[in-house]
Design brief:
This protein is α/β, with parallel strands linked by helices. It folds into 2 domains: 31-123 and 249-318, D-Maltodextrin-Binding Protein, domain 2, CATH 3.40.190; 126-241, Periplasmic binding protein-like II (D-Maltodextrin-Binding Protein, domain 2, 3-Layer(aba) Sandwich), CATH 3.40.190. It has helices at 3-17, 20-23, 43-59, 74-81, 96-99, 139-148, 163-175, 187-195, 206-214, 262-276, 279-287, 297-318, and strands at residues 32-36, 63-67, 89-94, 115-124, 126-131, 154-157, 180-183, 201-205, 218-223, 250-257, 291-292. The protein has a 6-stranded mixed beta sheet with strand order 2-1-3-10-4-11, with helices on both faces. A 5-stranded mixed beta sheet has the order 7-6-8-5-9. Strand 6 (154-157), helix 7 (163-175) and strand 7 (180-183) form a beta-alpha-beta unit. Helix 3 (43-59) packs across helix 10 (262-276). The relative contact order is 0.18. This is Tripartite tricarboxylate transporter substrate binding protein. Pfam families: TctC. Belongs to the UPF0065 (bug) family.
Length: 323
């Protein structure tokens, strides 16, 4: 037998007795970047870091976060949509992917076509908060005041078209009230003016509102969802106060550019689901006002479609425009 024949025989033997997974380099083989379309230190960034940090620890692979805030998350979203579909650039998707197509006419990405869902990480309830010295003690008092003097009450948001803004518009539609929207350039200045009493209320995400509620700087009147928030056990839900249809789940999930290999998506989904079951991660998410979710990519895709349909209707009915 010549050298060529010996090599061929050896190769055949190796293929026959080597498990398939060993033949190909297992994903990931290099650093995975997760684009977070928000500035560092905010609620969304904290949720991303709680999961991504543990994902790296569990897998022994390198995962880093790249904060690309601005333009209503469109800067980060677009950047992720143009990344190579190889599994090494991911996006922290958020509720804005369900809203932006209906308020920004010239998006350079399509939330339904530019990405493939990987895993639904968490949802965060929306909390109605007022200044600590506000006369309002519950939701019905707010509704009564809004109906008594249409347009006089106002609510702050971090900008037109944000989930906080849309939450206020949905509240107005469901309660048949008229309140004035006061948009700010970011949630931080909106919260500052709320604490100072310059605005009447804010429909904020729990992850953003919790530190201020616990610190006594603002008062929480209600939370969305079927049950009370564990971190705010004394704050009733909107449903408990007669507004059962008001639900604004601010969702968070990991997405990848369209056409990312299914094997990479499945690996990530399996690992992220395992991370979400880790008690330390679950406790961390709950402590910052988020509820771990998990599930399959298909379930996340179905959820995103339902959310998109819902917010398209709200934007149309409320005639929401971006300032």
């Amino acid at each position: 037998m010549n050298i060529r024949s010996l090599c061929a025989a050896a190769a055949a033997s190796f293929l026959a007795f080597t498990p398939p997974g060993v033949l190909a380099q297992a994903y990931p083989t290099k650093t995975v970047t997760v684009i977070v379309p928000f500035a560092a230190g905010g609620g969304s960034d904290n949720i991303a870091r709680a999961v991504v940090t543990k994902l790296g620890e569990r897998s022994g692979k390198s995962f880093i976060i790249d904060n690309r805030g601005g333009a209503g998350t469109n800067i980060g979203n677009e950047l992720a949509s143009r990344a190579a579909p190889d599994g090494y650039t991911l996006l922290l998707g958020q509720i804005t992917l369900s809203i932006n197509p209906y308020i920004y006419p010239n998006l350079k990405y399509d939330p339904q076509k530019s990405f493939v869902p990987v895993a639904h990480i968490a949802t965060a309830p929306t909390v109605l908060i007022v200044p600590a010295n506000s006369p309002f003690k519950d939701v019905n008092a707010v509704i009564a005041a809004a109906k008594a003097k249409p347009g006089k009450l106002n609510y702050a948001s971090g900008g037109s078209g944000t989930s906080v803004h849309l939450g206020g518009e949905l509240f107005k539609l469901l309660t048949k009230t008229d309140m004035t929207h006061v948009p700010y350039k970011g949630s931080a200045p909106a919260m500052t003016d709320l604490i100072g009493g310059q605005v009447d209320m804010m429909f904020d995400t729990a992850s953003s509102a919790l530190p201020h509620v616990k610190g006594g700087k603002v008062r929480a009147l209600a939370v969305t969802g079927d049950v009370r928030l564990k971190e705010l056990p004394n704050v009733p839900t909107f449903a408990e106060q007669g507004l059962k249809d008001f639900d604004v789940p601010v969702w968070y999930g990991i997405l990848a550019p369209a056409n990312t290999p299914a094997s990479a998506v499945q690996w990530l989904n399996t690992e992220i689901n395992a991370v979400l079951k880790d008690p330390t991660v679950a406790e961390r998410l709950v402590s910052i006002g988020a509820v771990p979710v998990g599930g399959t990519p298909a379930q996340m895709a179905e959820f995103m479609k339902a959310q998109s349909d819902r917010w398209a209707k709200v934007v149309k009915e409320a005639n929401v425009k971006v300032d």
